[in-house]
From TrEMBL:
Residues 1-38 are annotated as: Disordered. InterPro entries: SWIB_domain, SWIB_MDM2_dom_sf, SWIB_MDM2_domain. PANTHER family: SWI/SNF-RELATED MATRIX-ASSOCIATED ACTIN-DEPENDENT REGULATOR OF CHROMATIN SUBFAMILY D. CDD domains: SWIB-MDM2_like. It comes from Methylocella silvestris (strain DSM 15510 / CIP 108128 / LMG 27833 / NCIMB 13906 / BL2). Residues 32-108 form the DM2 domain. This is SWIB/MDM2 domain protein. Residues 1-36 have a biased composition (Low complexity).
Length: 108
C-alpha cells in the first residue's frame, strides 16, 4: 500500500506544474512585444521606417551593431555608438542591458 501512495503523490504534484506551464504561453500570446510600433526618424536610419514589433527592432539593431563592428572587443556587453546610434542613444556608448531603455524612447 505504501508503494501506491508514493506513486500517487508525484502525479498530483506534477499535474499543477503542467497546468501552470500551459497557462503561461496563453498569457504572453497577446503580448505588447508583438505589436508593431513606429520608429522615430533617428531609429529609422538603423531599422527602416516601417512599423515593427519591439522584438524585431532589437534584432535589427543587433544586426546593425554586428555588421558595423560596434561591440567593444574588450567588453562585449558594451556598444560603441556610431553617428546613427548616437542619435538614438544620446551617448557614445551603452551596455547591452541599457540599450532597450533607449530604443523604447524611439518607438510609438
Amino acid at each position: 500500500m505504501t508503494s501506491s501512495s508514493k506513486k500517487a503523490a508525484p502525479a498530483k504534484s506534477a499535474a499543477p506544474a503542467k497546468t501552470a506551464a500551459k497557462a503561461a504561453p496563453k498569457a504572453s500570446s497577446g503580448s505588447a512585444f508583438a505589436k508593431p510600433l513606429q520608429p522615430s526618424k533617428e531609429l529609422a536610419e538603423v531599422v527602416g521606417s516601417a512599423p515593427l514589433p519591439r522584438t524585431e527592432v532589437v534584432s535589427k539593431v543587433w544586426e546593425y551593431i554586428k555588421k558595423h563592428k560596434l561591440q567593444n572587443e574588450a567588453n562585449k556587453r558594451e556598444i560603441l555608438a556610431d553617428d546613427k546610434l548616437k542619435a538614438v542613444f544620446g551617448r557614445d556608448k551603452v551596455t547591452m542591458f541599457e540599450m532597450n531603455k533607449y530604443l523604447a524612447q524611439h518607438l510609438k
